[in-house]
């Protein structure tokens, strides 16, 4: 029973739940980014470079022979993956930059000075009494 209770305590910790939510949202975000790259970014880039579809770029190293498939160096898929990565990295960079800007604006907002604790107030009174005693002329 001890292992089950330990696992339960581990599984419901905030960090584990937060990580799971992050992974799920990340997977969904990956689909959005893939669609953005494939459906929005790549068509204009392909048009600019003469209608070349990167995914179709490949070099056949050895032609197919009977049941043996062809050996193909699909460098276009690699180029597409690099472009996907750059776009995702840039999107994440812009998101983090915006979040950091919001955090800086929060930090700049003036905050009230902290109120002194009871101990600090008492020490201040003691200091003031000692100072008043030292300022009295000697008789």
Per-chain topology:
Layout: H1 2-11, H2 14-48, E1 59-62, E2 71-73, H3 75-108, H4 118-135
Antiparallel strand pairs: 1-2
What does this structure look like?
This protein is mainly alpha-helical. The protein has 2 domains: 50 residues, Large-conductance mechanosensitive channel, MscL, domain 1 (Non-ribosomal Peptide Synthetase Peptidyl Carrier Protein, Chain A, Orthogonal Bundle), CATH 1.10.1200.120; 77 residues. Strands 1-2 form a two-stranded antiparallel sheet. The longest helix has 35 residues. One of its GO terms (molecular function) is mechanosensitive monoatomic ion channel activity. It is found in: Cell inner membrane; Cell membrane. Channel that opens in response to stretch forces in the membrane lipid bilayer. May participate in the regulation of osmotic pressure changes within the cell.
Secondary-structure element pattern, one letter each = HHEEHH
Structural class: mainly alpha
How big a fraction of the residues is strand? 5-15%
Spatial gap, N to C terminus: 79 Å
Number of domains: 2
Helix content: 55-70%
The description of the largest β-sheet is: 2 strands, antiparallel
Subunit structure: Homopentamer.
Organism: Pseudomonas trivialis
Pfam family, one: MscL
GO molecular function: mechanosensitive monoatomic ion channel activity
